[in-house]
């Protein structure tokens, strides 16, 4: 990658090891899906907080298909700056005549012609997709793309404001040689947004949900395109490569959604990590197989995904103080989560675990009223651990319970809500923790490589939950 590349400069500017972990190699259709999801968020924002939008469209030929769309984006933005090659045709389109839209005609030897970037900086949020196309040298000789959808890019996407602000500054500086006055105006917008950010953070769970939907549809489009251009045996190999790439990015979107849910829950901001970790410990104690532990660990990270669109009251009150609408949302959270995860066939076993976490041992739970051993074992573990962890944190007027108090509350529901054998296993873990023979883990032994932001420094330890003594393996 060229040393002048925006992506390369960002990597050099960030402290070692702090690049967003979404950094990797992406297929073109994946990037289209990510950019469309972020653009839709601009179009659907109703709070009047207009962003600064910086765009580079690589060779730019495809952009005319999007010109009308960017007219609408410009109407929702403070300023839009678009860099592309001069013969992209965009300068002839009416969108380019809008007062808050500026074009930068790139020289043919500028490495920006190899980049595809979308940077959005708003008062209440920041987001971006940064990428740089692989050179012929980066491909193996037998793997040089022959059709458009096979093209690959080094890239990343993130909502982390520091990275977005750094990238915006880099890109403005790269536009300066072309148009000094434009760079000055962009810098003025940038400084205004940087120095006066909104005190209210924007809920981005909706945009992440759209990312998942776009990734799902782009996968279907890829298969359709390949059917038209390849023999069946070639299609199968290509679809497999594309499927792996898209599956990783869909999972990444789900995990980011969960992180945003945890961030909204000020009283319990590390619930997903702690539930995953304790569920894994309980699964190890009862000798689950490796593959079942892996699925349980991931289900623990995703167990609250059904709360992506939940009203804020749910994170502030106990169930007995919720209004009727919020109570219905709380009651159906497991089914909602399972339904969302079902959009990704690769997660079918995990979706099943999440869906049935609120089934009760006596058959009075939801969504299917399963009873006893008919409830998947991993769902029984997840339901118990999630309830236990919730009790150890403050919620509304209810104070946080000690480990022993939370265990006692679970024991009262043994043989009614919870599997009595699992209660015994949880009791063993808690008792060992209380006498100092076991440390309750703060996070699972492994986190997926697609866990987006590094929140290890944000997860406080308490006198109830102690950090793992071993390093987390990514």
TrEMBL record:
Specify the HD-GYP domain's residue ranges. Answer: 246-442
Q: Which SUPFAM superfamilies match?
A: HD-domain/PDEase-like
Q: What Pfam families does its record include?
A: CHASE6_C, DICT, HD_5
Keyword terms of this UniProt record: Kinase, Transferase
Q: What superkingdom does the record give? A: Bacteria
Q: Which GO terms describe its molecular function?
A: kinase activity
Coiled-coil regions listed in the entry: none
- Is Transferase one of the keywords UniProt gives this record? yes
* PANTHER family for this protein: CYCLIC DI-GMP PHOSPHODIESTERASE TM_0186, CYCLIC DI-GMP PHOSPHODIESTERASE TM_0186-RELATED
Recorded protein name is Histidine kinase
């Amino acid at each position: 990658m060229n040393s002048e590349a925006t992506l390369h400069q960002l990597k050099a500017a960030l402290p070692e090891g702090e690049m967003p972990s979404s950094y990797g190699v992406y297929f073109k259709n994946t990037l289209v899906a990510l950019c469309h999801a972020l653009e839709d968020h601009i179009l659907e924002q109703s709070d009047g907080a207009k962003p600064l939008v910086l765009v580079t469209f690589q060779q730019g030929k495809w952009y005319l298909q999007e010109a009308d769309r960017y007219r609408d984006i410009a109407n929702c933005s403070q300023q839009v700056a678009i860099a592309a090659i001069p013969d992209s045709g965009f300068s002839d389109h009416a969108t380019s005549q809008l007062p808050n839209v500026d074009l930068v005609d790139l020289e043919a030897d500028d490495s920006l012609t190899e980049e595809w970037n979308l940077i959005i900086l708003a008062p209440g949020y920041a987001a971006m997709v940064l990428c740089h196309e692989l050179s012929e040298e980066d491909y193996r000789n037998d793997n040089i793309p022959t059709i458009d959808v096979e093209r690959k890019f080094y890239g990343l996407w993130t909502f982390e404001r520091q990275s977005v602000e750094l990238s915006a500054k880099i890109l403005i500086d790269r536009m300066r040689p072309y148009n000094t006055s434009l760079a000055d105006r962009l810098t003025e917008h940038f400084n205004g947004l940087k120095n006066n950010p909104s005190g209210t953070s924007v809920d981005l769970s909706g945009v992440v949900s759209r990312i998942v939907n776009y990734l799902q549809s782009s996968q279907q489009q890829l298969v359709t395109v390949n059917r038209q251009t390849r023999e069946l045996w070639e299609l199968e190999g290509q679809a497999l490569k594309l499927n792996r790439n898209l599956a990783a990015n869909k999972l990444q979107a789900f995990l980011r959604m969960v992180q945003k849910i945890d961030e909204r829950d000020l009283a319990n901001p590390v619930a997903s990590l702690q539930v995953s970790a304790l569920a894994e410990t309980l699964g190890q104690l009862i000798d689950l197989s490796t593959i079942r532990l892996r699925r349980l660990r991931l289900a623990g990270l995703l167990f609250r995904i059904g709360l992506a669109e939940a009203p804020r009251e749910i994170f502030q009150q106990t169930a007995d103080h919720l209004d009727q609408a919020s109570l219905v949302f709380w009651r159906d959270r497991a089914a909602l989560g399972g339904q969302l995860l079902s959009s990704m066939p690769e997660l079918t076993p995990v979706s099943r675990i999440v869906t049935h976490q609120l089934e009760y041992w006596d058959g009075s739970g939801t969504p299917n009223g399963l009873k006893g051993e008919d409830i998947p074992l991993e769902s029984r573990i997840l339901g118990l651990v999630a309830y236990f962890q919730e009790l150890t944190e403050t919620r509304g007027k209810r104070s946080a319970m000690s480990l022993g108090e939370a265990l006692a509350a679970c024991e009262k529901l043994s043989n009614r809500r919870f599997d009595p054998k699992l209660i015994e296993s949880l009791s063993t873990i808690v008792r060992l923790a209380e006498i100092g023979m076991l440390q309750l883990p703060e996070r699972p032994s492994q986190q997926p490589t697609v866990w987006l932001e590094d929140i290890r420094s944000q997860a406080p330890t308490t006198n109830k939950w102690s950090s793992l003594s071993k390093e987390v393996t990514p």
